[in-house]
Amino acid sequence: MPHLKNTFPVIGIVFLGLLACNKKDGENQHLNPDDQTTFDLMSVKEGSTWRYGGRDGVTYTRYARGKDTIKLDARYSYYERKDDNAGSFDPEYFGKNKDAYLTLVDVDGNQDNYLNYLFWKDGATVGTSWDNTGKVNAPTIGRVNVLVESYVAEDNLTMMLSSQTFTRVVHVHSDLKGGPFNTRLGNLDIWLVKDIGILREEVHIDVLGQYQLDHTDSLLDYHIVP
Question: Where are the domains of the chain?
Fold first, then answer.
Protein backbone atom coordinates (compact mmCIF):
# COMPACT_ATOMS: atom_id res chain seq x y z
CA MET A 1 0.00 0.00 0.00
CA PRO A 2 1.26 3.56 -0.68
CA HIS A 3 2.41 5.56 2.30
CA LEU A 4 -0.45 7.05 4.30
CA LYS A 5 -1.00 10.72 3.52
CA ASN A 6 -4.06 11.40 5.64
CA THR A 7 -6.97 9.57 7.16
CA PHE A 8 -9.69 10.09 4.59
CA PRO A 9 -7.92 7.98 1.90
CA VAL A 10 -7.62 5.23 4.52
CA ILE A 11 -11.41 5.18 4.78
CA GLY A 12 -11.44 4.41 1.08
CA ILE A 13 -9.12 1.44 1.59
CA VAL A 14 -11.33 0.12 4.37
CA PHE A 15 -14.47 0.52 2.26
CA LEU A 16 -13.11 -2.08 -0.14
CA GLY A 17 -13.37 -4.64 2.66
CA LEU A 18 -16.88 -3.75 3.77
CA LEU A 19 -19.80 -5.95 2.79
CA ALA A 20 -22.38 -4.25 4.97
CA CYS A 21 -26.00 -5.25 5.05
CA ASN A 22 -27.47 -1.73 5.15
CA LYS A 23 -31.12 -1.43 6.10
CA LYS A 24 -31.40 2.30 5.35
CA ASP A 25 -29.66 5.04 3.46
CA GLY A 26 -27.30 7.33 5.33
CA GLU A 27 -27.72 11.07 5.43
CA ASN A 28 -25.02 11.41 2.79
CA GLN A 29 -27.48 9.86 0.32
CA HIS A 30 -30.15 12.53 0.81
CA LEU A 31 -28.30 15.75 0.01
CA ASN A 32 -29.68 18.14 -2.59
CA PRO A 33 -26.86 19.51 -4.81
CA ASP A 34 -28.78 22.81 -4.94
CA ASP A 35 -28.17 23.19 -1.18
CA GLN A 36 -24.39 23.08 -1.55
CA THR A 37 -22.82 26.26 -0.12
CA THR A 38 -19.31 27.63 0.44
CA PHE A 39 -17.18 25.42 2.68
CA ASP A 40 -16.53 27.35 5.90
CA LEU A 41 -14.97 24.86 8.33
CA MET A 42 -11.55 26.10 7.22
CA SER A 43 -10.32 28.82 4.90
CA VAL A 44 -10.78 28.43 1.16
CA LYS A 45 -8.43 31.34 0.37
CA GLU A 46 -5.35 30.54 -1.66
CA GLY A 47 -2.23 30.78 0.47
CA SER A 48 -3.85 29.16 3.51
CA THR A 49 -1.95 26.03 4.62
CA TRP A 50 -2.11 23.34 7.31
CA ARG A 51 0.83 21.04 8.08
CA TYR A 52 0.27 17.68 9.80
CA GLY A 53 2.60 15.08 11.26
CA GLY A 54 2.14 11.41 12.08
CA ARG A 55 3.71 9.22 14.72
CA ASP A 56 5.98 7.80 12.01
CA GLY A 57 7.55 11.22 11.47
CA VAL A 58 6.02 11.74 8.03
CA THR A 59 4.43 15.13 7.38
CA TYR A 60 2.05 16.45 4.77
CA THR A 61 0.65 19.90 3.99
CA ARG A 62 -2.86 20.86 2.92
CA TYR A 63 -3.16 23.85 0.58
CA ALA A 64 -6.29 25.89 -0.11
CA ARG A 65 -6.44 26.69 -3.81
CA GLY A 66 -9.12 29.39 -3.76
CA LYS A 67 -11.41 27.76 -6.29
CA ASP A 68 -14.40 25.45 -6.57
CA THR A 69 -15.01 22.43 -8.75
CA ILE A 70 -17.99 20.25 -9.62
CA LYS A 71 -17.95 16.64 -8.40
CA LEU A 72 -20.93 14.27 -8.09
CA ASP A 73 -23.04 17.08 -9.59
CA ALA A 74 -22.34 19.40 -6.65
CA ARG A 75 -19.92 22.24 -5.86
CA TYR A 76 -16.87 21.48 -3.72
CA SER A 77 -13.96 23.64 -2.57
CA TYR A 78 -10.72 22.42 -4.07
CA TYR A 79 -7.62 21.80 -1.96
CA GLU A 80 -4.40 19.91 -2.56
CA ARG A 81 -2.44 17.72 -0.17
CA LYS A 82 1.32 17.44 -0.52
CA ASP A 83 3.42 14.60 0.83
CA ASP A 84 6.33 16.60 2.23
CA ASN A 85 8.69 13.65 1.82
CA ALA A 86 7.75 12.53 -1.69
CA GLY A 87 6.80 16.00 -2.93
CA SER A 88 3.69 14.71 -4.72
CA PHE A 89 0.32 16.47 -4.70
CA ASP A 90 -3.15 14.91 -4.49
CA PRO A 91 -6.52 16.66 -4.90
CA GLU A 92 -8.94 17.06 -2.00
CA TYR A 93 -12.57 18.13 -2.13
CA PHE A 94 -14.55 19.61 0.77
CA GLY A 95 -18.12 20.87 0.73
CA LYS A 96 -20.99 22.04 2.91
CA ASN A 97 -24.63 21.11 2.34
CA LYS A 98 -26.89 22.99 4.77
CA ASP A 99 -25.38 21.88 8.12
CA ALA A 100 -23.45 18.89 6.73
CA TYR A 101 -19.67 19.08 6.27
CA LEU A 102 -18.52 16.76 3.50
CA THR A 103 -15.41 15.39 1.88
CA LEU A 104 -15.04 13.12 -1.11
CA VAL A 105 -13.30 9.83 -0.31
CA ASP A 106 -11.08 8.49 -3.10
CA VAL A 107 -12.23 4.89 -2.80
CA ASP A 108 -9.67 3.12 -4.97
CA GLY A 109 -6.87 5.70 -5.20
CA ASN A 110 -7.43 6.38 -8.91
CA GLN A 111 -9.14 9.75 -8.37
CA ASP A 112 -12.20 8.73 -10.37
CA ASN A 113 -14.29 6.75 -7.87
CA TYR A 114 -15.48 9.02 -5.05
CA LEU A 115 -17.90 8.55 -2.19
CA ASN A 116 -19.56 11.54 -0.51
CA TYR A 117 -18.67 11.35 3.19
CA LEU A 118 -20.39 13.43 5.89
CA PHE A 119 -17.85 13.88 8.69
CA TRP A 120 -19.50 16.58 10.85
CA LYS A 121 -22.76 18.51 11.25
CA ASP A 122 -22.55 22.19 12.10
CA GLY A 123 -24.09 22.92 15.49
CA ALA A 124 -24.35 19.25 16.44
CA THR A 125 -24.15 18.62 20.19
CA VAL A 126 -22.87 15.63 22.15
CA GLY A 127 -24.82 12.52 21.19
CA THR A 128 -25.96 13.78 17.78
CA SER A 129 -25.53 10.88 15.35
CA TRP A 130 -25.71 10.16 11.63
CA ASP A 131 -24.81 7.40 9.16
CA ASN A 132 -22.92 7.32 5.89
CA THR A 133 -23.82 4.61 3.42
CA GLY A 134 -23.16 3.94 -0.22
CA LYS A 135 -22.18 1.52 -2.93
CA VAL A 136 -18.72 1.46 -4.44
CA ASN A 137 -16.96 -0.58 -7.10
CA ALA A 138 -14.37 -2.82 -5.45
CA PRO A 139 -11.74 -4.65 -7.55
CA THR A 140 -12.54 -8.38 -8.03
CA ILE A 141 -15.59 -8.05 -5.76
CA GLY A 142 -17.89 -5.77 -7.74
CA ARG A 143 -20.48 -3.51 -6.12
CA VAL A 144 -20.34 -3.49 -2.33
CA ASN A 145 -22.26 -1.62 0.35
CA VAL A 146 -20.56 0.54 2.97
CA LEU A 147 -21.66 1.76 6.41
CA VAL A 148 -20.11 4.27 8.79
CA GLU A 149 -21.92 5.21 12.01
CA SER A 150 -20.86 8.57 13.50
CA TYR A 151 -21.71 10.68 16.51
CA VAL A 152 -20.41 13.72 18.39
CA ALA A 153 -18.51 12.27 21.35
CA GLU A 154 -17.37 15.55 22.93
CA ASP A 155 -17.65 19.27 22.28
CA ASN A 156 -16.38 22.57 23.66
CA LEU A 157 -13.01 20.93 24.37
CA THR A 158 -9.67 22.65 24.95
CA MET A 159 -6.77 20.94 23.17
CA MET A 160 -3.05 21.70 23.05
CA LEU A 161 -1.05 20.69 19.98
CA SER A 162 2.52 21.76 19.20
CA SER A 163 2.44 24.37 21.99
CA GLN A 164 -0.75 25.89 20.58
CA THR A 165 -4.01 25.91 22.52
CA PHE A 166 -7.31 25.42 20.68
CA THR A 167 -10.74 25.97 22.21
CA ARG A 168 -14.27 25.01 21.13
CA VAL A 169 -12.91 21.73 19.77
CA VAL A 170 -15.38 19.04 18.65
CA HIS A 171 -14.59 15.32 18.76
CA VAL A 172 -16.45 13.06 16.28
CA HIS A 173 -16.26 9.28 16.67
CA SER A 174 -17.12 6.90 13.82
CA ASP A 175 -17.49 3.12 13.75
CA LEU A 176 -16.73 1.31 10.49
CA LYS A 177 -18.85 -1.80 10.05
CA GLY A 178 -19.23 -4.61 7.54
CA GLY A 179 -20.38 -8.14 6.84
CA PRO A 180 -23.93 -9.48 6.87
CA PHE A 181 -24.17 -8.72 10.60
CA ASN A 182 -22.51 -5.29 10.41
CA THR A 183 -19.41 -6.51 12.21
CA ARG A 184 -17.32 -3.68 13.65
CA LEU A 185 -14.08 -3.40 11.66
CA GLY A 186 -12.53 -0.33 13.23
CA ASN A 187 -13.04 3.26 14.24
CA LEU A 188 -12.12 6.76 13.19
CA ASP A 189 -11.84 9.76 15.52
CA ILE A 190 -11.59 13.34 14.30
CA TRP A 191 -11.00 16.50 16.35
CA LEU A 192 -11.88 19.76 14.62
CA VAL A 193 -12.60 23.39 15.33
CA LYS A 194 -14.64 25.83 13.26
CA ASP A 195 -12.64 28.40 11.25
CA ILE A 196 -9.36 26.48 11.63
CA GLY A 197 -10.22 22.97 10.44
CA ILE A 198 -9.18 19.44 11.34
CA LEU A 199 -6.77 19.26 14.29
CA ARG A 200 -6.21 15.55 14.80
CA GLU A 201 -7.21 12.19 13.31
CA GLU A 202 -6.87 8.68 14.71
CA VAL A 203 -7.76 5.52 12.83
CA HIS A 204 -7.70 1.93 14.10
CA ILE A 205 -8.61 -0.78 11.60
CA ASP A 206 -8.79 -4.56 11.60
CA VAL A 207 -10.50 -5.93 8.49
CA LEU A 208 -11.18 -9.57 9.26
CA GLY A 209 -7.58 -10.12 10.32
CA GLN A 210 -6.40 -9.44 6.76
CA TYR A 211 -5.58 -5.74 7.07
CA GLN A 212 -4.62 -3.82 10.21
CA LEU A 213 -3.83 -0.15 10.60
CA ASP A 214 -3.18 2.16 13.54
CA HIS A 215 -2.38 5.73 12.63
CA THR A 216 -2.52 9.16 14.22
CA ASP A 217 -1.70 12.54 12.75
CA SER A 218 -1.95 15.99 14.32
CA LEU A 219 -1.75 19.61 13.25
CA LEU A 220 1.80 20.95 13.55
CA ASP A 221 1.25 24.50 12.31
CA TYR A 222 -1.00 26.47 10.00
CA HIS A 223 -1.33 29.78 8.21
CA ILE A 224 -4.71 31.26 7.34
CA VAL A 225 -5.00 34.10 4.85
CA PRO A 226 -7.42 36.73 6.26
Answer: 7-223
